[in-house]
Amino acid sequence: MNTTTSSIEGPPTASRWERFRDSYLLYSFKRDLIAQISLLVFVLMVVAAVLAPWLAPMNPYDLAQIDILASELPPFWISGSEDAYVLGTDAQGRDMLSTILYGARVSLIIGFGAVALQAILGVSFGLLAGYLGGRIDAFLMRLADIQLSFSTLMVAIVVGALVKAIFGGATFSAYAVPLLVLIIGLAEWPQYARTVRASVLAEKNKEYVDAARTMGLSSRRIMFRHILPNTLSPIFVISTVQVANAIISEAALSFLGLGMPETHPSLGSLIKSGFDYLQSGSWWITLMPGAVLVLLVLVINLLGDWLRDVLNPRLYKG
């Protein structure tokens, strides 16, 4: 005798793309013109920086391509310019468009690298402090309070000056990018730690965490696999702000002579290199990279403001 079994199938599970398409995040983005323009400008700037070796008319690191006789040429709309240099040249004869593209790439690398380091340290310390509590919480939060009592720029200046004095200027210039990532990253981790700790304190006594403990899961698994995903919203918001802050910190350190050397341009070092020529009429050497820096920080902050509003549950309308 043949028996036929029928299986009861539940409703089809929506794919990730379908969930994203129907999400409030995309809905809000489509209705926010400022966020759309900011994201477009930011993506264009990142793509241009990444493709700098192919988009730039010249390589500012190649001494063979630098013509010192073509120094301080004005941009194309000012008389005395040359067609080969659209945005003019700096005091060393380097093409300003090329140096800005390469400099933006260095600034973005430092900004994203420093924020990645901040997030790794801050999220780890925040999880430990909030979940374990006790002496570990007291020690980590007092350490964060001590560091927050100093300004970020002052901490970066002190650490940068010490590194430069101990290892020498030549070594600092050779490893300027990883050193600046380390310096800026170590100066800002408390922002993440305090935010994550507050979120963990609100999550660790909920039912799903108690169920995970009852199942015998380790503390590390509970922290990173169960609690951490529920604290990602404030982390994303902080990250957008911190990227802008890291780029500004790099520019400030470079302007003070504790950042990128002039031979390895970033937006900050380009502003510094042209500052001495601002009064002599070669204003474009400073103002061009300065305008790019302001625009980059502005669009990042606008995206951060939009993301903060979207991820704020008090403003969520469903």
Automatic annotation (TrEMBL):
Main localisation: membrane
Pfam families xref list: BPD_transp_1, OppC_N
GO biological process, one term: transmembrane transport
Highest rank taxon of the organism: Bacteria
Sequence ranges assigned to domain ABC transmembrane type-1 in this UniProt record: 104-304
Membrane topology: Multi-pass membrane protein
InterPro entries, per the entry: BP-dependent_transpt_permease (IPR050366), MetI-like (IPR000515), MetI-like_sf (IPR035906), OppC_N (IPR025966)
One GO CC term on file: plasma membrane
Keyword entries, A-Z: Cell membrane, Membrane, Transmembrane, Transmembrane helix, Transport
Protein family membership: Belongs to the binding-protein-dependent transport system permease family.
The protein's name: ABC transporter permease
Organism: Billgrantia pellis
